[in-house]
# Entry
Amino acid sequence: MRNRVSILLLIMTMLTTLLAGCGKESNPAAPVVGEEEATDSGEGKLAPYEVKLVFYGPAQKDLELVEQEMSKITLEKINATVKLERIEPAAWDQQTILMLTGNEQVDLIVTGNTAFSRQVAQKQLLPLDELLKSHGQDILKVLQPEILEATKVDGQIFAIPSIRDFAANANVMMRKDLLDKYNLDASTIKTLDDLDPFLETIKKNEPTITPLGKPGAAAPIINRVLETNWDVLGDYIGVLEKIDGLKVVNLFETPEYEKLIKTVRRWYEAGYISKDAATSKETAVDLIKANIGFGVIQKGKPGALAQTEQRVNTKLELINLGKQMTSTTNITAIMLGIPTNSKNPERAMMFLNLLNSDRDLINLLDWGIEGKHYVKVGEKSIDFPPGVDATNSGFNMRQGWMYGNQLLSHTWVTDNPNLWEEMDQYNRESTKSAALGFSYNPSPVKTELAAITNVVRQFQSGLENGALDPEVNLPKFNAALRAAGIDKVIAEKQKQLNEWAEKNNK
# Structure
């Protein structure tokens, strides 16, 4: 995918392409565009084109049917059909690397964080500033300037984040049936240390149940606490000491990190955490769903409780731990970029603009075809049609967070109908990192980062799941990090952050 669109091709394309119209369906976050403007760029005004969107997710029997329905909208609006190219999550990295280093046409691709940095460094994504001005007017209307700022590398925008939960806080979720059974009052939990009597009660009275599970297969017990209490500046190797400051420090040398891993070690030794947590792929959701788990420290956002309850098929109680925070890493976790070997970057941007403004289009991608994959059960809510459920639906990806403006999406019947209004408010009321908008370029210290990665693999999971004694292993961890060059990496990150702050008058 290193073959760039030539300057001549760009000029010829721009000369033969009229400005794209904007979707007229909208919510308060996506202003209405007139019918005349929308149809001006419709069929007959632009040459036919197929826009290919590459993403990851589970197989869907009716994917082609959804493509066809989406294409009816895009043919009218931008004279383009839609190709949805799904890749298995396990094969995502390998296949997309091949795509982006070959000649295959890809018009939009899901990207984020480390992959995003690599793709920009390897010149596999196009800068989007001019395309946004000419064909992405609705995107500019619905995304706050500071959100777009977070996507910039060397002053240019290279991808557009999906509109979703840009903020996050940590919370604890626990089974309500067991809380009620032992008269445990979850409202007394204010800090992680307050969890001890709850975990102790479950351990003592329910020997077949694991009191605390992992939030993800590769995410240690305290992962969600780390990523919501620090701005990790992309990779955890050098984090902001404080959210409102610009000093970069070694996370693993902070007193707060030491306290956290000592807490987890205490839980591990008491038997509240599985002895194989550091190596097992089982998550808390897996355990609770199988009736052998009790609780989890999870990442918070509006709707998180209802969505988790649906996954585990049991009632849970949620306690928030701290206020939500927004960082560049939150924003850039999931984005859509236009690769350099798109055959028509203008049309790709027109399609991306529709994903952020056309309610019918984004709901097809999020939920499938009305009447076949879902039915409306209220003004905003949807459910499965009669005779359809999660086991037999032909389209049930539930990945609305991945592309476009999720605030235009229907809400599932188990969610609050006002979920997206709550999400918008949650984002706006979050504490913003002082480094919001800063993107770190790791290229100058890639050799050190390779060595550091090996050290992290050796120690981090064991420490953050309680399997390693921090009294012995935390000093070893930090000594190995220093030997691998973490001080040089932090100095480089601090240098880049200072230069960014000076340029932006922070």
